[in-house]
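It is worth pausing here to work through a concrete case rather than discussing structure prediction in the abstract. The textbook approach is simple: state the sequence, then state the predicted structure, then interpret. We follow exactly that order.
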Amino acid sequence: MAYTPPNTFTTATPLDAADVQGNLDALRVYLHEQVVGADLRAVQFVDGRHVQAPEWDPIRGLQHGVSGWQGSQWSGGAAVRVSFTTSAITGRRYTGAEQWVQQPGTGLTIDIRAPATILFHYWWEVEAGPDDGSRGPGTSDRYSYTAPYVGSVGLVIASASQEVVNNTNGWSVGTDAKGADSPYTYIGYGQHDGVYLDTTTGPQRYTVGLCSLSTIDRSAVLNWGVSIEVTYL
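Step two, the predicted structure:
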């Protein structure tokens, strides 16, 4: 409907300030809440399609992601760049207390704009052992675990952890071959990967990454990769 002022004025009649303000208030309400396309001239730019609220959510369905990676290679034939995950760092081997620690450089932080589904991809290559010493909780097989965390290392997703078992048999020192006693692909070496699915009611600052827990004296992550995808609901 068209705008109709609630108060009218007659020529040569004194104006009342409250009536003038009432007309201004009514006009403000009309402009902000009640303008319809029929009240606008079709030949002008400002017509119904420009002032009506959109019928779609500009955030819903939008996807954006962040990725990070690190490659650790032999450098000059003398050194290897690795991220250590040994029992000395996690504390598990010596004290018997479980203590997850962050894998350096694997954390991502992203600002979530609205309720969303979050998909966290990760992979790593680890070298664990051999470790056949007598220190710590027994001399049986020991393990190095890697798991995702959300927010902080204190919020580990233990159900998504993966393990690498120590090569307790040590090294084979035969005449023709020297190396780990068990195959690399079976014990102590190899690549692992996983996906963790999460949801958030947003908006929030969201952090996710990888952490480790190890009972192995010598354990190190050689290479790793992490990425995150966010799809708004």
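Step three, interpretation. Residues 1-53 form one domain. DSSP finds four helices and 14 strands in the chain.
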